[in-house]
Write a structure and sequence with these properties.
Aminopeptidase, 3 domains, six-stranded mixed beta sheet, five-stranded mixed beta sheet, 18 strands
Length: about 450
């Protein structure tokens, strides 16, 4: 009997502890606003059990959080961003917290769990998407595409991270997402002063955008060029310098590039992918590089970027690197990713948050973009009329064979050169009339591509 009694006490003790362990806690209510959507984020201790209630009117969403102990952190959060008015939290009983969200007008909603990631807590997120605002945004991008008929060049600047995804964080708490947004705005202002160029940002504020949505925005704009802007971090506080990356589907240029691609590709895991209701697998749109031309174009622009940036900042590497960056995987758009410098380096962190350095960096990047677009296709003069433009176009030569060359540097092999230009060593041999025994010598000029172009 004593043994049974002890087992009973132990069972009750275990049950009480299980119940205590099962209770959750709401620690914070946050929100992120974009032009077309709002994300409400509830910071919690563990995955939430919840239920949605039928609201008295369509402008409300009511959620009960079940088995939540502890105090309610805040009773009301005013949002007033044109989509959400307020978020209210209150207890209905000792185990239930009610979240009531009031909207400006009815909107599509999605509730989902966001798992712990690095120092990010467990979260319950509620996305509100206004379809009318999304359609207006999309129509604006489609209208912008028409500018291309007037020989306008479209540049999309993509400030990395945003919202719940801060990116790299310096020892002093400087966040990558804020630095790169500031730099991107400066580049856009500079480019929009140039005739024949229009620059747009994928995000205009502090909110999260899935990687696939960033490339979709670029496609809807009809982008000629896509530049994703980032700031790096490293365990070493001495590492410094700018680096530029292009897409590779055949492996990274080195382990560092591979690790960086993995880190940048993790953005969706941190920020929460369900905001993008059109999140298709990007691999499905990659067809062995329609991209051969796009890859070469991206490498050329990256080379120019590095040369211009080297005038205002040290380079980590003086050649473009490559790896499988998801945000660069559009087969039709010249794309690259620039790591401006390292927030983990105290000296560079101070520079990256200074207006002067950001301006010099933005000016260099803008100058590189203008130079690349000018080489790719002449930009219209400020006073060029459509009639004059048509006359210039009619006098151009027609299809002509254009060869692209590479000067061999010390230590390079046919295989390494082929990888850089996304081709094969056999193709290079055939293009240059080499035998299988031919050696490539430093200083030799190799033909790496020959294609039809219209001038």
């Amino acid at each position: 009997m004593v043994q049974i009694f002890l087992w009973t006490i132990a069972g009750v003790f275990f049950l009480q502890n299980s119940v205590c362990a099962a209770t959750n806690e709401l620690t914070a209510i946050r929100y992120w606003s974009s032009p077309t959507s709002t994300r409400i984020v509830l910071d919690i201790k563990q995955r939430a059990t919840y239920q949605t209630l039928k609201p008295p009117k369509p402008e409300l969403l009511v959620i009960d959080l079940i088995d939540f102990s502890g105090a309610v952190p805040v009773s009301a959060v005013p949002v007033n961003d044109g989509i959400v008015k307020t978020v209210k939290a209150s207890r209905t009983d000792s185990r239930t917290i009610r979240i009531t969200i009031e909207l400006e007008k009815p909107a599509a909603s999605k509730i989902f769990q966001m798992e712990r990631y690095l120092d990010m807590p467990q979260r319950l997120a509620i996305d509100f998407i206004r379809q009318d605002l999304e359609q207006a945004d999309q129509m604006h991008r489609e209208e912008t595409r028409k500018l291309k008929k007037k020989e306008m060049r479209i540049v999309i600047l993509d400030p990395g991270h945003g919202g719940d995804d801060p990116g790299a964080i310096s020892p002093n708490g400087i966040r990558e997402k804020n630095v790169v947004l500031s730099v991107a705005r400066k580049i856009a202002r500079k480019l929009n002063k140039k005739p024949g160029i229009k620059a747009y940002l994928t995000r205009k504020g502090d909110y999260f955008i899935p990687l696939s949505t960033r490339t979709r925005i670029a496609r809807e704009y009809g982008a000629d060029l896509f530049v994703s802007i980032h700031a790096d971090s490293n365990f070493s506080t001495e590492l410094q310098g700018t680096s530029v990356y292009c897409l590779s589907l055949k492996g990274a240029s080195d382990n560092t590039a591979e690790m960086l691609a993995q880190k940048e590709n993790a953005s969706d895991s941190i920020g929460g992918v369900p905001l993008d209701h059109n999140n298709n697998d990007l691999n499905a749109i990659i067809i062995d590089l329609v991209q051969t031309h796009t890859f070469n174009s991206s490498m050329r622009c990256s080379d120019i970027l590095l040369k211009e940036v080297s005038k205002v900042n040290a380079l980590l590497r003086d050649r473009p690197q490559h790896a499988g960056f998801k945000v660069l995987r559009d087969p039709d758009i010249t794309s690259m990713l620039i790591e401006t410098d390292f927030l983990s380096n105290p000296i560079k962190e101070k520079q990256l948050r200074s207006e002067g350095f950001q301006t010099r960096l933005a000016d260099a990047i803008a100058a590189a973009i203008v130079r690349f677009l000018s080489e790719a296709k002449p930009l219209p003069a400020p006073d060029r009329s459509p009639v004059k433009a048509a006359a210039v176009k009619s006098t151009r030569q027609q299809d002509k064979k254009i060869a692209q060359y590479h000067t061999v540097e010390k230590g390079e092999t046919l295989d390494s050169i082929a990888q850089r230009y996304n081709t094969t060593a056999d193709r290079l041999r055939k293009l240059n009339g080499f035998s299988s025994e031919s050696k490539v010598l430093a200083g030799k000029k190799l033909k790496v591509r020959q294609e039809e172009q219209t001038r």
